[in-house]
Amino acid sequence: MPILIKFIDARENLSVQVNPDDEFALECENGQLGKTEMSYVVEAEPGAELLFGLSSRLTINQLRNYIAEGSLKRYLHHVPVRKNVVFYIPSGTIHAIGKGTLIAEIQQSSSLRYRLYDYNRVDKNGRLRELRVEKVLQVSRLDGMQYPRQPLRVLRYSP
User: Fold this and answer.
1) 52, 89 Cβ separation under 8 angstroms
2) Strands 16-18, 37-44: parallel, antiparallel or unpaired by DSSP?
3) pLDDT digits (tens, 9 = 90+) for 4-60
4) Domains of the chain
5) How many CB atoms lie within 10 A of CB 51?
6) Angle subtended at Cα 114 by Cα 27 and Cα 83, rounded to the nearest 5 degrees
7) Angle 29-121-56 (CA atoms, 0-180°, nearest 5)?
């Protein structure tokens, strides 16, 4: 299937990640596809947010340093979310779903994502979950993104 739809019930902050585009994935990930996605907020608790894109232009070295010191969240847009809003998340956009949200995520059918921050979570073997910093540096949009103006709104069909 060309698209995948997932429901994500974020009871805690999810990892900060970025998805590669098709060109990068095809070349560097054994012919897999990259991922562009959108998130429809089904439910949101008060104070819930989405981390969405860099708030200002960064260099690769700045991004690497902020990831290493765990301070990158300061340089991301923190966007409040509420029920019935939609976010378009193009590949290359650093993003994360915040706790207290139920999201319907519609995406290209790909499991590729590169974590760059994960709240020091461990896997089933007690090891810190893998961060893919070098790949993050290759695929992330560093130009700084405009704060989502709307966010996109859902149009309801009526006859």
Assistant:
1) yes
2) unpaired
3) 999 999 999 999 999 999 999 999 999 899 999 999 999 999 999 999 999 999 999
4) 3-139 (2.60.120.10)
5) 21
6) 120
7) 65
Distances (CA, A) of 144 to 55, 65, 127, 131: 5, 17, 33, 22
141 is catalytic: no
- CA-nearest of 29, 10, 53, 16 to 108 is 29
The answer to whether residues 116 and 67 touch, using CB atoms and an 8 Å cutoff, is yes
The two structure tokens encoding residue 105 = 């995520």
From the list 11, 57, 115, 129, the catalytic residue is: 115
Rg (CA), the chain: 16
DSSP assignment string, 140-158: ---S--PPPSS-EEPPPP-
Structure tokens at 31: 């012919």
